[in-house]
UniProtKB/TrEMBL annotation:
Gene3D superfamilies xref list: 3.40.50.360
Protein's recorded name: NAD(P)H-dependent oxidoreductase
Domain spans labelled NADPH-dependent FMN reductase-like: 3-152
The keyword Signal appears for this protein: no
The entry's keywords: Flavoprotein, FMN, Oxidoreductase
PANTHER family: FMN REDUCTASE (NADPH)
Domain of life: Bacteria
Amino acid sequence: MKKLVVLTAGLSSPSTTRMLAEQVAAAVEAQVTKRGEGVEVEFVEIREYAQDLAQFMTTHVPTQHLRAVQEKVTAADALVAVTPVFSASYSGLFKMFIDALSTDSLNSMPVLIAATAGTPRHQLVLDFAMRPLFTYLRATVMPTGVFAATEDFGGTTDMAPRVERAASELASYMVRADGEVAGLAPAEFTGGTPRRDAGTQVSGGGMDFASLLKGHTGD
């Protein structure tokens, strides 16, 4: 059973940020299930930790309430992070939550980023604010982010294809077989000739690096 934590930084209730988070989470759950794996989804409403975060910023000591959710995030197999856009960037409350995490909390964790705003002009927040933030924390950020403006909730546009693509990317990381490494394909050896197909895996067998580099001049 995989664990997916969904961070949502909406301030109102109901919240378009929460609505987008639920849509993305449902798509990820469907994609993981499609791959034959179960998934447990847990939502974290960051506004519920506002006082805890304010206290942490002044004392650097997390409350028990905050520590518990930090442990949930660290123990997750994947993360969906959704924030409203304020002043052309993620919300201050969202940033406070991320700042309160240990610098090693998200090492190699697959993360799907998403954001909401009143106008499509803010969609670059994904690549110029959120992506650098999670890259700094050494997370593995999915290539596809999901942005939703107010008009996207009115039925005038169709976000479904983008949500499905992002969800598929995250699900692929969540159910990757043991030993697989992003960017490489599984090596199969038949008669001493390596064959690489789609997928990602580094096998314990086959040629070692010394053999591969033998006679190589470095040019």
